[in-house]
Amino acid sequence: MTPTKAAPTASTPAPTSVTTSGSTPTAEAPTTSSPATPSAASTADETGIITTTPITDEVLRAVYASDQEMYPVGLTYSRLRQWVAACPDLSICFQSTKIKQGLLGVVIVLPLLRSYWEDLLTGKLKEPDIDPEKMFPRPASSSTPVRTPGMAARGGGKTLHVMPQKQEVGLHVYHIERLAVEPPTPKQKRFSDIAMEEVTRRSEERGDWVVVGHSALTATDGGKRTFQRLGFKSTGYRELFVTTARRNSQATLSSSDGLAGETQERERPEAEEEEELEMMFIYPDEDGASRRSVSEIIGYGRKVVSMSEMTVKHLVSDAIPVA
Ligand SMILES: CC(C)(COP(=O)(O)OP(=O)(O)OC[C@H]1O[C@@H](n2cnc3c(N)ncnc32)[C@H](O)[C@@H]1OP(=O)(O)O)[C@@H](O)C(=O)NCCC(=O)NCCS
């Protein structure tokens, strides 16, 4: 989750509106023209009228390029696109009438079936390995038609409709970013609140999920502060980029400034040091009992370039099979 310079495309899909004052956004109303009719509530604060659109390919590419630059994990662009395509209503662009360029920010949230989400929290499952086909909840279908054998044998025409079981889902915030360049005023609502309330509203509106918690792998200071403010706690799983200073083993130099045509080898005055970037993982409780420091865990001589921390906010503590 890193800053990007994303821009809206000319072919931005038709927006829908979100109200922003108070703690609960009102129901989304699809519109064909932008912006939506202002509600009394949304004109009362300075956040302006917020509208939402799906993420365009251009914005998604900007998010990907910037993330890779700062956090070069093995995530392919096609995987990122798969995530968005598998659950487009949780990948959202926000626009505001108060922002000159219009684009307020973007959020990409991945819904994971509970067992996969719990593996993600502890680092057993890594973000790039999230396979939406297997790990996202099945798409909602209102009911499953079932014909009983007895009915079929008697040639009866009755069909029973069995309501599908609710699926337990954890919502993982893969990316959140305020894109507006204008600094927010104290009277405006924070972008992180706008985005997370909209994600919550959309996931509740589905009706076929039990959302057991929210998570985020926080990479930046702003992200860490934001999720802490929202009540997220560290799971103890951390991903680090570290550099290791390596002595160059070929500590000799070639020189041709001696006899004509002859190459001489001479010792370097000091062995050269090269820095190698490496990714390391710290799992929950690795520092628990002994309270070891990060340097002790990763080994001295390594320099931490960045450290991301998995954070979570549990909404349901026990597995609740909901019919
Ligand atoms: C994470 C992020 C989306 C949170 O956005 P946000 O909720 O709008 O809040 P901001 O981070 O922009 O706020 C920065 C500061 O501006 C001020 N501020 C922002 N919105 C404010 C508001 N509505 N009212 C008052 N002050 C506000 C606060 O002083 C805040 O500092 P604080 O968090 O120490 O209190 C945003 O910081 C961001 O886009 N960062 C870059 C991308 C990033 O790091 N993403 C997360 C990766 S884990």
From TrEMBL:
This is Uncharacterized protein. Residues 1-50, 131-157, 247-274 are annotated as: Disordered. Residues 247-257 have a biased composition (Polar residues). It comes from Podospora australis. It comes from the Eukaryota. Residues 1-44 have a biased composition (Low complexity).
